[in-house]
Write a structure and sequence with these properties.
Blueprint (H helix, E strand, L loop, with lengths): L10 H11 L3 H17 L16 H5 L15
Helix pairs in contact: 1-2
Length: 77
């Protein structure tokens, strides 16, 4: 079975939303996909390719540690 990879830039946002909603990320992603597919079938949503090089959030997420938490500097540094 083919399993497409989720863009790394979206993982921190998905993680925060899932934690806020107290649900597993997989269930959140499935719900978001189901909603988006339904809107596309209704002709409400138009999908376009993201800009070259990924999403506009790339710079912001690169400055953060995994799952969107700010990086902490150790007292030794």
């Amino acid at each position: 079975m083919y399993s497409p990879k989720i863009c790394e830039d979206l993982i921190p946002q998905l993680y925060r939303f899932a934690k806020r909603l107290d649900m597993p990320m997989t269930r959140l992603v499935n719900a978001l996909l189901a909603h988006g597919i339904e809107r596309m079938e209704q002709g409400v949503e138009q999908i376009s390719e993201p800009p070259a090089g990924g999403s506009a959030r790339t710079k912001q997420t690169k400055r953060r540690a995994q799952y969107g938490r700010p990086e902490r500097k150790s007292a030794d540094a």
